[in-house]
Amino acid sequence: MKFRTFFILITIFSLCAATEGCSGKKKDKLLSTGIGTGSGTGNGTGTGTGTYSGDGTGIELVCVYDPELGAQTSHKEHFGSIVQESSGYIWTGTKNQVFISKATIKDGISGDVIIMNLDDYMVRGGGLYGYSEGTTIYVGGDCLTLTFQHELGHAKMSLKDHYGSMITCIMNASNNGAYMGQRNYCEGGMYDCWGAVVSKFNISPDGATGTVPPTEIVIQ
């Protein structure tokens, strides 16, 4: 099969809040790759490395569809728009410091993001919006940006669920996602997601200024 590669650079100018929550299961595992400001490339095995060298810390992702799904370019471009929008929310949630610098979207069986279907916002029925295992997340082809940001918090930031609490945080999917809408990472308390993010990415606890850098979307 012959593949054509399209390079799309899009800067996100405005962000809007989603209203639905996400739920899922996870296996926490410390992230050894997937962030940085040096050089490197994703290898399609769930260990993408950061490549952005400007302001901010970039996360690089490899997102794959099972070849049997028959994903078309239009499906991959649509998922790319979800990644771009999610990058903006991550940027805001990390006080203008962390974003998704590059996402390669292609057919495959391993990657940082496994896309489970072509156009559903859940991975399967029964209220399962997405889940993570180790450093890999599993989402639907039309997943909510809330789901994407939440599951990436597990896989690439080693953050835990806050079930049963009333903490306002992207990691609290309790009460149908009622506490996730601000897209923030909670500060202090029993979880202190913000402290964990600051430590993992070596960013400023006080935040920074500036607009979100562009996300490079590579369609294969």
Tally of separate helices? 4
How much of the polypeptide forms β-strand, as a percent range?
A: 15-25%
Percent helix: 10-25%
Radius of gyration: 16 Å
What form results from the Cα inertia axes? globular
Structure, briefly:
It contains four helices and seven strands; from the N terminus they run ββαββββαααβ. It is an alpha/beta fold and 220 residues long. The protein has a seven-stranded mixed β-sheet with strand order 1-7-3-2-4-6-5, with helices on one face.
Description:
The chain has 220 residues and is of the alpha/beta class. The protein has a domain at 57-161 and 198-219. It has helices spanning 73-93, 145-157, 174-177, 193-201, and strands at residues 6-10, 57-65, 98-107, 113-115, 130-133, 136-139, 215-219. Helix 1 (73-93) crosses helix 2 (145-157). The radius of gyration is 16 Å and the shape is globular. The relative contact order is 0.24. The model is unreliable at 1-53 (pLDDT under 50).
Descriptive key words:
single chain; disordered N terminus; 220 residues; 21% helix; alpha/beta; 4 helices
Chart the SSEs and their pairings:
Layout: E1 6-10, E2 57-65, H1 73-93, E3 98-107, E4 113-115, E5 130-133, E6 136-139, H2 145-157, H3 174-177, H4 193-201, E7 215-219
Parallel strand pairs: 2-3, 2-4, 3-7, 4-6
Antiparallel strand pairs: 1-7, 5-6
